[in-house]
Amino acid sequence: MDRRKFMCTAGVLAAGLAGMGAAGAALAAAPETKGAPVLNGKTLEAALHARMSARAYADTPLAEPLLLQLLWAACGVNRPDGRRTAPTALNRQEISVYVTRKDGVFLYDAPNAALHRKSGADLRSLTGVQSYVGTAPVNLVYVADMARVAGGATEAGLITAGLDTGFISQNVYLFCAAAGLVTVARTGIDVPALSKAMGLAANQRVIMAQCVGHPKA
Question: Rounded distance, CA 82 to CA 75, Å?
Fold first, then answer.
C-alpha cells in the first residue's frame, strides 16, 4: 500500500470510529477496549503533523476521564487476549506506567483502565532534572520489571525495555497531538533518588519520564 492509500485508509478509519456514536461508546465500554478514546475524527496524518515536544504547560489539571483515555492509548488493553496498544518483546508487558501529580503517585491498572494510589507525595519535580518538570500537571514515569523483560537484567534486556517504553511514549505523543495536549519525553532523571522516593523494588528500573499537560497560552 502506498503512502497516499495508507493515509486515506487511516483517515476513513478514524472518522468512522468518531462517527459511531452510541455504538462507539459501547465499544469503548467493552472489557477488551475499556477506556478507549474517540478523538473527533482527527486522522493519523493530522496527528503526525501535529506531534511535537513542548516544555511549557498551563497550570490546569488533566481531567480524570481524559487522563484515563491517554493512558489507554499509551498501553491499554485493546483486545480480548489481554494484549496492549503498545507492543512488548515476547508480549512480556514488563513496563508499568506510574502517574505523578500534585495529589500523589498512581499506578495505571491497564486491565481495569483504572488508577491506584501508591503515595500521597508530590514527586513531579523528582521525575527529571529539568526546571519545568515540576510545573507539568502530569509526569508519567515508565518503570521496567527487569525480571520480566526479554533478555533479563542484562544490557540486551535494558535495550529491549527502552524499545518497549519508546512504543508507549510515541502513543502518548500521538494522543496528545490528537487531543490538543502537549508532552515531552525525558531521560534526564536522577534515577536512584526517584526510585527511592517511589519505593521501587530492586528489580524495577526507571527507564524514562514524560510530561503531559495543556499548552501554556
Answer: 11
- The pLDDT > 90 percentage for the chain reads 74
- Name the residue ranges covered by the structural domains of the chain: 53-213
Q: What does the mean pLDDT of the chain come to? A: 86
User: How many Cα atoms sit within 13 Å of 207 on the Cβ side?
Assistant: 28
Residue 199 has a CB neighbour count (10 Å cut-off) of: 10
> Is residue 151 within 8 Å of residue 205, measured between CB atoms?
no
Residue 153 near residue 146 (C-beta atoms within 8 A): yes
Which pLDDT band holds residue 195 (cuts at 50, 70, 90)?
very high
At the topology level of CATH, where does 53-213 sit?
NADH Oxidase (3.40.109)
Q: pTM, whole model, 2 decimals?
A: 0.82
Those residues whose C-beta lies under 8 Å from the C-beta of residue 212, and which sit 6 or more positions away, are 62, 70, 136, 137, 138, 139, 140, 172, 176, 181, 182, 183
